[in-house]
Amino acid sequence: MSQEFLWQLSIWAFPVLVAIVFHEVAHGWVAYRLGDPTAANMGRLTLNPLPHIDPIGTVLLPALLIWAGGPVFGYAKPVPVDYNNLKDPRRDMIRVALAGPGANLALALLSMLLLKLLILSGSFTAGSMTSYLWYMGLTSVRMNVMLAVFNILPIPPLDGGRVLVGVLPDAQAMQVARVEPFGFIIVVALLMTGVLTYTLVPIMEMVIWFLAVIVGVV
After folding, report:
1. Confidence category of residue 204, pLDDT binned at 50, 70, 90
2. 122 SS3 class
3. Which amino acids are annotated catalytic?
4. How many C-beta atoms lie closer than 10 Å to residue 176's C-beta?
5. 217 burial class (0-12, 13-18, 19+ CB within 10 angstroms)?
6. Any residues with CB less than 8 A from the CB of 212 and at least 6 apart, and which?
7. Domain that holds residue 203
8. Distance from C-alpha of 61 to C-alpha of 74, rounded to nearest angstrom
9. Which of 23, 39, 142, 201 could cross-link 44 (Cys pair, CB 3.0–4.6 Å)?
10. pLDDT-derived band of residue 124, with 50, 70 and 90 as boundaries?
11. Residue 22's CB: how many other CB atoms inside 10 A?
């Protein structure tokens, strides 16, 4: 392995792991609070990454993307949710779905605060711990914003698709829900054609700018 790859891996590994684990735990925790103990009973309401790791989505895919120098993406094992256990399935499904992107936006905000503190410290010697934390903080901001924006796409089984099913009238909701078996294929097709890149990147940059304004980085 090249030194550059190992450097990139060290910068990306922790932020990616934290982002996807918090995303899934947030889904399960909100579901638990709303009456569904499925994730809790399966030991998935833990920040220990081991129960959440998917060999492909958490390890292989991010590593390959880092090696290829492309945008880094990853996912964990989905936290199981039994919507029949929820107090108000349609309403609570929206809350559970939004919990994941919400957790990522919260992590992005905390990471932006870290960058603010590093700026105030004023010590950015090349190769220093401050410099290392700066790159890791930037990575965390981008990774979490990307996950939040990507998952809010209104395509089942992404979180935005579940929100759409929850807000639509029954007839339209059923039609959207039927898309779920093909959702992954649709997402891959949109990625390969570049549609998602042109659509999501400007939204991501706008969210990052907004967080930077809130924290006072810009």
Report:
1. very high
2. coil
3. 24
4. 17
5. middle
6. 112, 218
7. 3-215
8. 6
9. 39
10. low
11. 22
